[in-house]
């Protein structure tokens, strides 16, 4: 893949290729497996970014993170139009990360257990001695995650927007491999403004790592801003993927 290919991908998705060029492009998709795979990765990444960011502050943080990554792994600077074409170049940079072209790669993929960390939870102090909170706390801290999920469900029935409870239920569901529900909880926390926002991103990345969905794991990791406590470990995991 090269810069001209990226321009072709963008033009094809924008439907700005003339009929002859479009026909040639589609023929190449059929004949060139590598080209077709790169295009699919680019299309997926573009769609992910377009749907992900509605808040300018989040977009700025993501852009800054990409710039930090590009400074470390690229010698050629982005063109001057980079700022005005953030989606195109963000997608391009993330695609390059996704296919591994500019990372110093290890031969072995990292394992979930190498990075999986989560705090011991303490719910009782914030719940006025609620016995259900104590049950959830004990089950989670004893790694009885199915039981913890059941108790957290009860607590969330009474407080459905509690960001801390959503985070812990998401972690518990990853441990029990209930990924769809885990990501619903973690996405809800990550899209908010609580202190748990970046921890939710990190835990979602770990879930994707556990599923060996390395491409999507990287896309989540690059959302974690340099100001986050989770940034350094996110960068360490990125370098191993």
Which short descriptors sum up this protein?
mainly alpha; Serine Threonine Protein Phosphatase 5, Tetratricopeptide repeat; 2 domains; 13 helices; 67% helix; 0% strand
SSE topology sketch:
Blueprint: H1 3-13, H2 19-31, H3 33-52, H4 56-73, H5 86-99, H6 112-115, H7 131-141, H8 145-158, H9 163-175, H10 179-190, H11 197-210, H12 214-221, H13 231-240
Helix pairs in contact: 1-3, 2-3, 3-5, 5-12, 7-8, 8-9, 9-10, 9-11, 10-11, 11-12
Task: Describe it.
Keywords: Membrane, Transmembrane, Transmembrane helix. The chain crosses the membrane at residues 86-105. By secondary structure, the chain is mainly α. The protein has 2 domains: 3-72 and 84-105, no CATH class; 113-240, Tetratricopeptide repeat domain (Serine Threonine Protein Phosphatase 5, Tetratricopeptide repeat, Alpha Horseshoe). The longest helix has 20 residues, at 33-52. Helices cover 67% and strands 0% of the residues. It has helices spanning 3-13, 19-31, 33-52, 56-73, 86-99, 112-115, 131-141, 145-158, 163-175, 179-190, 197-210, 214-221, 231-240.
Task: Specify the CATH homologous superfamily of the largest domain.
Answer: Tetratricopeptide repeat domain
**Radius of gyration from CA coordinates:** 21 Å
Total tally of structural domains: 2
Q: Report on the biggest sheet.
A: none
Number of strands: 0
Sheet-strand content, in percent, reads under 5%
C-alpha geometry = elongated
Rounded mean pLDDT score: 80
């Amino acid at each position: 893949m090269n810069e001209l290919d990226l321009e072709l991908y963008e033009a094809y998705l924008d439907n700005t290729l003339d009929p002859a060029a479009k026909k040639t492009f589609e023929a190449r998709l059929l004949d060139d497996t590598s080209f077709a795979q790169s295009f699919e990765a680019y299309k997926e990444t573009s769609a992910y970014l377009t749907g992900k960011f509605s808040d300018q502050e989040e977009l700025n943080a993501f852009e800054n993170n990409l710039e930090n990554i590009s400074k470390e792994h690229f010698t050629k600077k982005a063109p001057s139009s980079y700022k005005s074409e953030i989606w195109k170049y963000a997608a391009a940079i993330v695609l390059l990360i996704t296919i591994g072209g500019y990372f110093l790669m290890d031969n072995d993929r990292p394992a979930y257990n190498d990075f999986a960390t989560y705090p011991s939870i303490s719910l009782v102090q914030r719940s006025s001695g609620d016995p259900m909170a104590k049950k959830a706390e004990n089950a989670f801290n004893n790694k009885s995650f199915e039981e913890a999920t059941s108790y957290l469900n009860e607590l969330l029935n009474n407080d459905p927007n509690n960001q801390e409870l959503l985070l812990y239920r998401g972690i518990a569901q990853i441990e029990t491999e209930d990924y769809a529900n885990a990501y619903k909880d973690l996405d809800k926390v990550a899209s908010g403004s609580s202190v748990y926002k970046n921890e939710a991103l990190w835990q979602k990345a770990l879930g994707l790592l556990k599923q060996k969905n390395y491409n999507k794991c990287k896309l989540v990791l690059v959302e974690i801003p340099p100001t986050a406590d989770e940034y350094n470990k996110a960068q360490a995991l990125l370098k191993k993927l």
